[in-house]
Amino acid sequence: MKKLFLTAAMIVCALAAQAGQDIVGLWTTIDDETKEAKSVVQIYEYKGKFYGRVVELIQNKNATAKIPGKPKVLGLDIIWDLQKDDDTYSGGKILDPTKGKVYGCEIWREGDKLIVRGKIAFLGRNQTWLKNTASQAGIAAPTPKKPKI
Question: Among 2, 6, 87, 105, which is disulfide-ready with 94 (CB 3.0 to 4.6 Å)?
């Protein structure tokens, strides 16, 4: 009985630690249609809000965003103004640079996976991004550059 209690307590502690994990760092984006890695996004905090910048392109290295001015996707902030809300980050926006559309954004972490939900009202879709420990592409202490849309 004591062994069972200790095992249950360890599981609860592990889940609690996992739920509270930070989203700051490098994440490999996975295309939800092809299941292939597309880019590396650095999620960073600036003045209490969270942002995401494309710091490496794995596919189509010269891609441009379908927004005014057609900026390069590399170096573009695609997530902005997220705020931490318990175990999720919400209230921000996410840009799909291939479609030029902006959606509401909510993010939460499940271990070494980041669940990124883009939504309009109650409709939306999730992508799973993977923790990236191999890339050296991150930028030290970036300042947000919200795209002109």
Answer: 105
